[in-house]
Write a structure and sequence with these properties.
about 0% strand; about 80 residues; mainly alpha
Length: about 80
């Protein structure tokens, strides 16, 4: 991993202020950022798209191949 020297110095100062190693400080930052990142299901747009797919497949008679059904829907437009 490469970091700008000025940024690295800031990271080192912040880590020292907390009594942490650079690695521990960066690990905390990464964990905090990853925990606060919402998953795709938290987006209203994604939930609506998934609901639309559910409706599409519910309307299809029988068990059709999902890829074929999506292509047919796309090509019908």
């Amino acid at each position: 991993m490469s970091l700008d020297d000025a940024l690295l110095a800031r990271i080192d100062r912040a880590a020292r202020a907390l009594g942490l190693t650079r690695s521990a400080f960066l690990s905390r930052l990464a964990a905090r950022d990853l925990e606060s990142t919402p998953g795709p299901g938290e987006s209203a747009a994604v939930r609506e798209a998934l609901a639309a797919l559910d409706r599409l497949f519910a309307a299809q008679p029988g068990r059709e191949d999902a890829t074929a059904a999506i292509r047919a829907e796309r090509d019908a437009r």
